[in-house]
């Protein structure tokens, strides 16, 4: 494999996870990332079910667990900070709403980068601007670097994938808005939180806060039900203005959190959307992670799908370069579709539509923790997060 060159676009989760496995099989791997360095920030992401087994096979299980947020659960409060319901991380075998393996996205990227930096060429501050496929390779033009030829190009560059736009067509053909937006940013830990997150629901919107970095700081989030809004996803100031507008009039700690937004060193805002594609590859160009099959943050499974997808894609490419992309899709498709279905179901119920619905939700949450209901919900969750028989690849 040493003479086979593979270019990956995107150095968040899917890209470095794929680089890990490809390098293990002996491919020559380059990762190009648009940001000038590894991107910090992002709220906690989770590994559930089969993705935990992939982390174990990578030998990174311990390092990932050591970098986890150690959140024990979440308390849902009303505007006066009175507890209305609780969710525990050990509910649903550790694969529930608050997962046992919960890690800040930037910290997970760091673990993956450290595990791959010796075997992978990383190019920061650049991006692909043109792909010219020939019979024996793909000629790649970069915004900054010199033109180079690769045997394969994989887009692991997220919901707004540049590779997808170049090889498959414009974003609007594949990205389906699910009716809500999320924002995350770091704030001082003013509530003195330790291992419990706090969430506050309003009609059609929510906010929350959890301690990170041993309680030195906290991570705030806002969620809003909203029709599709036209905004420039690279214009951070415009996005902050939008969050202020959508969060106006919220109670609890929300006004204070909104006032801290400008001081935050990181800020992430995006629509809750899914990527639905008939095929994840075309010729020598393939897609992985959110670029191919984003299930939306509402599924809680974006990072897990990226992890499992990276394992399968690399294993199938090692088994046969010509058939690898199609085999990867055949192995992953059902798992992805089940997960996306759960993401759409969650999108229907994530925000309360009235005060009465909000009160009912708290009652339901308490009922769901009772034995027969908990067992039912747990089975459903288990089916989705373990919804793939992980193939064994030689040498793993
Ligand atoms: C800064 C950030 C914060 C996030 N925060 C959260 C969160 O709080 N909660 C949550 O559920 N999900 C979050 N996500 C999404 C989450 O990481 C993914 O759903 C999941 O982990 C799958 O990851 P991915 O690697 O497929 O895509 P992503 O994590 O979206 O990564 C895509 C990577 O590609 C890079 N990129 C984009 N365009 C190009 C281009 N043209 N050329 C080269 N590189 C490019 C991006 O800078 C990024 O590093 C965040 C993503 C990012 C980038």
Tell me about the largest β-sheet. 7 strands, mixed
Strand order of the largest sheet: 5-4-13-14-15-12-16
Ligand kinds: flavin-adenine dinucleotide
Tally the helices: what do you get? 12
Span of the ends, CA to CA:
16 Å
Average residue pLDDT: 91
State which percent range the strand residues make up: 25-35%
Helix content: 25-40%
Principal-axis shape:
globular
Order of helices and strands: EHEEHHEEEHEEEEEHEEEEHHEEEHHHHH
- Low-pLDDT runs of 5+ residues are none
**Rg of Cα set:** 21 Å
- Secondary-structure class: alpha/beta
Total beta strand runs: 18
Keywords: Monooxygenase, Oxidoreductase
Protein name: FAD-dependent monooxygenase
Brief rundown of the structure:
This protein is an alpha/beta fold and 396 residues long. It is built from 12 helices and 18 strands.
